[in-house]
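Homework help thread (please don't just give me the answer)

Our assignment gives two proteins as sequence + structure token strings and asks us to describe the second one. The first is just a warm-up. Here they are:
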Amino acid sequence: MSPLRLLLLALALALAAVPCAQGACPASADLKQSNGTRTCAKLYDKSDPYYENCCRGAELSLEPGADLPYLPSNWANTVSSLVVAPRCELTVWSRQGKAGKTRKFSAGTYPRLEEYRRGILGNWSNAISALYCRC
């Protein structure tokens, strides 16, 4: 086998062995609080073009049934990554008071909200102003 092929094979094996190679976001099934109660979703204010740097920074945990037509001032239009627990759904709006564009995120991990369109020219990164989380 050529040295180049050996190097590529070694690199592929090293990347496969690295935990969280798909990103730093927690798995959807791991959303639980330290006391064992259920968490509906977690929001993060940092994302990055590199998935391993997503779901970082400040974190906001939402309980089932969280209904926030007005996000706290330090969270309005700052969410860049999110994770939704199994059997839960997060509905978000682009304007306060549950107005503007809307989108539903089902159970799963969303490390880069830049990848989810909001209208013709926009995306959902730094665009969430209201939300409702149900399980």
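The one we have to describe:
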Amino acid sequence: VSAMNAKTSSAGEEEASGMSNETLGEAKRQQVIRVAYVIAALDLTFLFMQMGLVPYLGKSLGLDSVGFGYLQTIFGVLQLVGGYIFGRFADQFGARAALILSCASASFFFLLMSLSTNIPLLFLSRLPGVFMHGIPGAQKVITDVTTPSQRAGALGKLGFCFGVGIITGSTMGGVLSTKFGVYVPTYVGLVGSLINTLIAVVWIPSQTKPKSDHHRTEHSTSPSGSLFSIREILRLMKFPGVMEVFIVKVFAGFPIGLFMIMFSIISMDFFGLEAVESGYLMSYFGVLQMVVQGLVVGNLASRCSEMTLLRVSVFVFACVGLGMALMRTVWHYCIIAAPLVFAFSMLATITDSILTKAVPSSDTGAMLGICASVQPLTRTVGPTIGGVLYKQFGVSSFGYLQLMVNLGLFVYLLKSKIPLEEMKS
């Protein structure tokens, strides 16, 4: 951060006054993208830090497994509803304002967690989650400052931030809570989120879109100007190719989403892992995520068409489903994890890139918000569906479901001609 501060000190006044994308040189755009990566990595680090903390905090307050499920469901619903609202906010007030809102909400979130000395306060601490969308905020910044040809590669590198967050956050949360107490990670998250807010205020330009896009935004938002509108969601889905790609995005990753929701139980019952071994496995996933999205996704995006990569990711998902149906040990799962991470990362990056290109630039934030609601939707309905599948049919059921769904989607993508049109400003 200090290095960035030294490089940008001479241009600080320009950025604070609202520098447009047209006046941003290539070096300046790359700098803004790097700052977005830093904010995303820190945000994910603090998020994963508290994810490992909440079960122990809830247990110390007397929260049982059913209550913990309610707590997770409430957070999922808030994220689901807030994703689109956050995207609309970013479209109307700018990516910088949206990032500041996300970081400030995270600060309030950790403040309430640090004060959670009883179960009602712990449930109350979930409320700021409605505006905690650091990754969509960073995606909005990157979408505004990149050209369509650069977008997939730049968005793909956000997965590297995810890897950093899951490794650093999980490790820090465990060490801090063990050595210094269960509330110490919340204090670190509070201070870190405040620093993140300051970074967004100082280094993200107040206007990241080109002037032409900014002028267009002012005249193309919905007449009501409301932050949540079903009519606006339906309007976005009517653009060529949007509905088809969004359906693929939702259903291709849904079966593996169910598996990941049940993974903590599966790791104990099916794989027989201890808590420490589960932590090592999560770190392994984080390393794979960093390698795949940092080195593989961007390079492939610059060499292959987006529709080709979408088909490849769905086909690899189907192969992963077959592997999951046949796996018996944790070592089998470690082998499957590599193509799994590749398919998951590629699908998320390519669909986000396609969908933001298919809508007007004034609606990219709303589109990213809708995309960000897919995972909270899975976390909301997933525990019930995943629990039934695991109890009635076992671990292999997740693999067979993954195989059947993605084979169907692959055939659909081969036969249908999805009209992918880049929306011109």
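TA reply:
I won't write it for you, but here's a hint about the kind of observation we're looking for: Confidence is low (pLDDT under 50) at residues 1-23, 214-224.
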